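Chapter review: from sequence to fold.
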Amino acid sequence: MMISTRGRYALRVMLDLAKEDTDAYVPLDRIARRQGISEKYLESILAALSRAGLVLALRGKGGGYKLSRMPEEYPIGEILRLTEKSLAPVTCLEAGMDCPQAEACPTFPLWQGLDRVIEDYLMAHTLADLLPGAARPEEQE
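The token string follows.
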């Protein structure tokens, strides 16, 4: 499993918004400037986050983006799953995939275990855990 640039940027953008006043909408250009991401690419990421209900969008003067929930209500796995489509370490574990070798494959249980570890780890940590001053995820283990 490799997290794409899109997934890493989505997580950075969500953290950027988590640092803001929860009532204020943050303009796209301000987020793009702070994160060093082109406005066009950032707009496509924020559109996906908005469609999924992870952020609220407001057009026009005073518009921008803000979180729809509190930072502690966003598991990292939810954000990455949205942008990555799959967090499975091997293709035979991806949703909808029916591996014909699964029962006979001696490595299949290993990949299932790794998949559970990844899922559990990413769902156990939230945006709030990554904010400045929070204990780092590896310190919480």
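Two observations follow directly from the output. The chain has seven helices and two strands. The mean pLDDT is 90.
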